[in-house]
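New here. Your pick:
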Amino acid sequence: MSYLKLLGATLGKLTTFLALSVVFVAAFLKYFDDPEPVHITRMATADIKNLEDNFRQQNKSCFILGASGETGKVLLQDLLKRNIFSKITLIGRRQLSFEDKAYENLVQEVVDFEKLDDYAAAFQGHDVGYCCLGTTRAKAGAAGFIRVDHDYVVKSAELAKAGGCAQFHLESSRGADKNSSFLYLKVKGEVEAEIQALDFDRYAIYRPGVLLVDRQEVRPSEWLARKFFGAVSAISSTSMSIPIQAVAKAMVSNTLLRPEQKVEVLENKAISALGSESDKK
């Protein structure tokens, strides 16, 4: 009996310690929240349905890179649900299968990313491009990561610009910096800068923190990070994490707006605000 009491007391103390730790970290991270941009306030007072109706009447088309990935899948679902484009094209290395009839009018272009110049036609005639393409160093190795997250992305953006695309929306990462000593953040920063140099009519960069999503593939370190930041987010909204649905919804909602600047960088807090506004219609 004394052993059980001791065990119960120990578990109780451990639970209390973990709870207090989460509260402490949440309070600490609050200081690192991104400042709220001015245009988010404008979005909060806008009639989102009217914005969608007006955009829909323009008969625009778009393409998605990385539609098989976690963000890309949710982005595609939201685009289909809101029906703001007359044509949606998926550009990827393989044909994707869908059972729902909502997907039956999609156009799919299968390309070899190692020979993208041979598939320039797939990038022609689109008004808006969404890029959610990416891998990890753990999965592809350093060279493979650079090839996918840099080479494929930048080359795709070049072909899209040459094909007449006016808007380009890039999913990047919090902390992206071309001068970073960390490979992941350095590559993300380089990609942001190189695409900006292409001079799209409008260029939006999204820098989410830890993406809160249950992946089909198991990545132990990411699973632990998601669980930790998910617990923190339940107490306090921080700039360190965000549900993946909010990222996708923000990318769609931001497409409808007339930006104050030609190039936008949306940090985690701005993404979260835009993602939540789309639920108010």
Remarks:
- The domain at 35-280 is CATH 3.40.50.720 (Rossmann fold).
- The longest helix spans residues 2-29.
- The radius of gyration is 21 Å.
